[in-house]
Amino acid sequence: MNNLFVTLFGKPFGIVIFQLIEATQFTIYLSLIAFIGGGLVGGLITLLRVMPNRITKNFAVSYIWLFQSAPLLMLFFLLGLGVPRFFEIEVNPWIAAIISLTIFTSAYLADVWRGAIESIPHGQWDGAKSLGLNFFKILRLVVLPQSFRIALAPTVGFMVQIIKGSSLAYIIGFQDLMLIGKRWANAPVSGTEPFVIFPIMALIYFFLCFPLTVISRRIESRMGSISRKNLISVD
What we know:
By secondary structure, the protein is mainly alpha-helical. The protein contains nine helices and no strands. The chain is about 85% helix and about 0% strand.
């Protein structure tokens, strides 16, 4: 494959393009792992946030506030550089990047999903309680099916923020698109100047993020049209 790019673009540009595309897969892997892991943790935090228990609610609020306030770059620094030096241990850049981005993702997704759940009219909770349903049954059978539609578009849209946030992982040595691109941009090789490399990197990030933005907007538009139809049918 490397030879194919060299044949098409020549040296060193073909090698650069090949390595940037190859490194992009690690950006995608990290983003997907963080999205799944952050979704699982964020779902738990959301549950703690909406439960009728002051202790769990305060814990969830504190978690969301803390990790939304902490810059993602600082999380990468602490887990990828601070912890290894303080405890004199080695932390794999993959592990540090995954944990940092998962924490960041979970805090924001928890807030998105909490907002979707709380947007459901409280009268539906009261009506379900009058039928003898407990909290978890109301949440599972009544609230979540409705809040899922509300939260779907912003959840997909937030994937763009995860991909862009993953670009900061280069500071801890994570071998992704950003790190490989910066190395080539700083290399004393003709044809790999920053004004050549960085536009290529920006184009790759665009092709990663733009489809997700389009999907998110289409979902939002579709859900809005469904809601309007429901209102018209009720009238």
